[in-house]
Amino acid sequence: MDALISPSADSAAAPESRVHVVCAEPSVANHFLAELRDVEVQRDSLRFRRNLQRLGEIMAYRISSQLSYVEKAVKTPLGESRSLHLHDFPVLATVLRAGLPFHQGFLNYFDQSPSAFVAAYRIEGTSQVQVQVDYLSAPSLDERVLILVDPMLASGKSLVQTYRAMLRFGTPRQVHIAAVIASPEGVAHVTREIPEATLWVAAIDEKLNEHAYIVPGLGDAGDLSYGSKL
Ligand SMILES: O=P(O)(O)OC[C@H]1O[C@H](OP(=O)(O)OP(=O)(O)O)[C@H](O)[C@@H]1O
Ligand SMILES: O=c1cc[nH]c(=O)[nH]1
């Protein structure tokens, strides 16, 4: 039988060691993030979506080091190679709208993954951020690796409520949450409310402003990707 090769589980690790900040070290991810933030470059929405996608690809690659693999023989034109194959493709879940380009980056790498989609929005006219989760479509999550992706982790309420709503589709065996820009408040909320998750972010910014927007952040990721809404 083919042996399963798994990384050591870090679910028992301290919360801070389950937060990975991808742009803490120099790499081309920093360049893509700088373009996403830049008001001049943001005028080009195609480039904005493409940079979200590229960061999705980079994060998918980073998260892939935490997944399980099976070694199998592959026939080449000249012989045989013992090669690692993904044991099972993770379920990729995202929040509409801004999540779509980031999700596509993950799907480019995890190309056989099933997807889950959630519609979540902030309820206007409330002093605190309140999030409404509406539409939800997902495959079974039982015993699957779940990667929940959303580029902006501001208050963290969208991600936490989305995750809770998704649990009616089953209990995943491993949970990863990926965001491009997070606030310190959002990181604290997600790590407290979803202790079983490993969090991957490109950057953690300074703070939230009075509208619960991330500062310096990048603005409204959904509008920059798809145009402003009424
Ligand atoms: O952490 P939170 O405070 O919950 O905020 C984060 C949410 O805000 C953004 O979506 P947005 O509300 O801009 O919707 P849109 O993608 O439809 O524009 C983002 O994609 C998250 O879903
Ligand atoms: O900074 C933020 C906060 C919520 N949604 C965004 O798109 N940006």
TrEMBL record:
<dbReference type="Pfam" id="PF14681">
    <property type="entry name" value="UPRTase"/>
</dbReference>
<dbReference type="InterPro" id="IPR050137">
    <property type="entry name" value="PyrR_bifunctional"/>
</dbReference>
<dbReference type="InterPro" id="IPR029057">
    <property type="entry name" value="PRTase-like"/>
</dbReference>
<keyword id="KW-0808">Transferase</keyword>
<dbReference type="GO" id="GO:0004845">
    <property type="term" value="F:uracil phosphoribosyltransferase activity"/>
</dbReference>
<keyword id="KW-0328">Glycosyltransferase</keyword>
<feature type="domain" description="Phosphoribosyltransferase">
    <location>
        <begin position="28"/>
        <end position="227"/>
    </location>
</feature>
<dbReference type="InterPro" id="IPR000836">
    <property type="entry name" value="PRTase_dom"/>
</dbReference>
<protein>
    <submittedName>
        <fullName>Uracil phosphoribosyltransferase</fullName>
        <ecNumber>2.4.2.9</ecNumber>
    </submittedName>
</protein>
